[in-house]
Design a protein that fits this description.
The protein is about 10% helix and about 35% strand. It contains six helices and 27 strands. Strands 1, 8, 10, 12, 14 and 17 form a six-stranded mixed β-sheet that branches. Helix 3 packs antiparallel against helix 5, helix 4 crosses helix 6 and helix 5 packs across helix 6.
Length: about 475
């Protein structure tokens, strides 16, 4: 959406306000040698708005013309995604990195109309590329690709943002009305590729798992742990090494025993970690959400070529004491961050976070929801035995536009670069697909400054005990 710069003016003028909101949750130890967050599904880079028309957004301050249509993203490892915007007032950054994300981690998780948005995607352009047939259903005489994209985006905005928006072209407007009126509930699609659970734990000499493969791909390639995890094998339930898998396959980390270990594995020894990666080539299901860690508007998938997808899972082991395996996900329904802890040790695992103490008994699994405010940035580290630590950073971004923000918009005659959140001046997608004279929406309140589709970033720091 070319006019999706509702935070653009505030971001350019009040960047220091964003920095001031940086760490609200108390940072833990610095994570040198940090690893990137666990991946699940497709990772892609925003290219730009490719097929679009014009629309008008109506609000208390007047009517504002914007561009509405289909974005294109390039998938890491190969492939192309086509997406629509579901976050009208957040700016989109060119070259922003996006990660496939469940609805629960986006504004769609609390949106009772999310299923209707998926129905629209399934029954309109580009999934329906017979424009004559689509035009006939919508009662339209002629329908161009630009009109089809604009009409589809307008219908989506009416459900994703509750926006009062119309397509400029009469044919596109008729399509938007048809899609809005015809939409029915559709279920959230499953991830293109995921490993469940994303973290396991146990003792040296054990077989940790199972980690189950979830995918629509015909098959996946299993990439074993790197050389740092010497001696760790990925096997099936019978202990046979695995190099390929399919949907439903159960994988295990087969750990070597520490020297001197007896049958009970209680003699101690080096703690360790390892990572399993699976990769496949498949089409990403229509309706999957994509979020960015660079304050770039949330997208929803409209079409996918054959694309490279991957997923990771971690294993942690220790000779004695608590042996935690932690993973986290935003929970927009509860306005917080779900932290799932599996403790396969022989002692309770305890940690303190944001003024609260938590304990996970030996042999138990527990999920705690850390409450956060909308747009609250957080940065904290949970530590464990043997120097084990996981750092969680991100921003809770679960809403599009709240009625409590008192949002005002004004027209601008030229795009304003959004430099907050790591963006580079001049890279805002306001410039995509048109001239600098195209009117844009820009926010005038600091309340919109931190609105953005910032996906949870999980950085792990894991050390090996001598």
């Amino acid at each position: 959406m070319r006019g999706s710069g509702a935070a653009r003016l505030a971001a350019a003028v009040l960047t220091s306000g964003l920095v001031a909101a940086g760490v609200l949750a108390g940072a833990g130890p610095a994570a040198a040698d940090a690893q990137a967050q666990s991946q699940s599904g497709a990772t892609a880079t925003m290219g730009g708005l490719k097929t679009y028309g014009a629309a008008v957004v109506h609000d208390e301050s007047g009517d504002h013309q914007v561009s509405a249509g289909l974005f294109e993203m390039s998938v890491d490892g190969g492939g192309t995604l086509q997406t629509y915007c579901v976050d009208l007032l957040t700016p989109t950054q060119r070259d922003a990195r996006y990660q496939e994300t469940p609805w629960s981690g986006t504004s769609l998780g609390a949106n009772t109309h999310a299923g209707k948005i998926r129905w629209i995607l399934q029954h309109s352009y580009p999934q329906v590329n017979d424009l004559a047939a689509l035009a006939a259903k919508a009662g339209v005489r002629n329908l161009t690709e630009q009109d089809a994209a604009a009409g589809t985006q307008v219908a989506i905005w009416r459900y994703s943002d509750g926006a009062h928006v119309d397509a400029v072209d009469p044919e596109a407007e008729k399509l938007a009305d048809y899609l809005q009126g015809s939409a029915r509930e559709a279920a959230e699609p499953k991830a293109s590729l995921a490993l469940d659970p994303p973290a396991v734990s146990g003792r040296p000499g054990e077989r940790l798992g199972p980690v189950t493969v979830r995918t629509d791909a015909a098959g996946v390639t299993v990439i074993p742990p790197a050389d740092a995890a010497a001696g760790v094998r990925i096997v099936d339930k019978n202990g046979k090494p695995v190099t390929s898998a399919k949907n439903g396959s159960r994988l295990y980390f087969d750990l070597p025993k520490n020297k001197g270990d007896d049958a009970s594995h209680t003699s101690g020894g080096a703690d360790g970690t390892a990572e399993l990666t699976v990769q496949a080539s498949t089409t990403v299901p229509v309706g999957r959400a994509f979020t960015s860690d660079s304050r770039s508007q949330t997208q929803i998938l409209a079409g996918s070529s054959e694309s490279t997808v991957s997923a990771t899972a971690d294993a942690t082991w220790a000779g004695k004491g608590p042996i935690p395996a932690l993973s986290a996900a935003k929970n927009c329904a509860k306005d917080g961050l779900d932290i799932r802890t599996v403790n396969k040790g022989d002692a309770p695992f305890t940690f303190a976070l944001m003024g609260a103490d938590y304990a996970v008994p030996a042999g138990a699994t527990k999920t705690v929801t850390v409450p956060l405010q909308e747009d609250q940035a957080y940065d904290f580290t949970i530590t464990g035995p043997g120097g084990y630590a996981q750092r969680f950073t991100g921003v809770l971004d679960c809403r599009t536009q709240s009625s409590e923000t008192g949002t005002k918009t004004q027209l601008m005659s030229a795009p304003t670069p959004a430099t907050a959140g790591g963006a580079t001046p001049g890279t805002d997608l306001a410039e995509t697909g048109g001239t600098d004279s195209t009117p844009l929406i820009a926010a005038t309140g600091l309340s919109l400054l931190v609105l953005g589709a910032t996906v949870l970033s999980i950085i792990r720091k894991k050390k090996t005990q001598p």
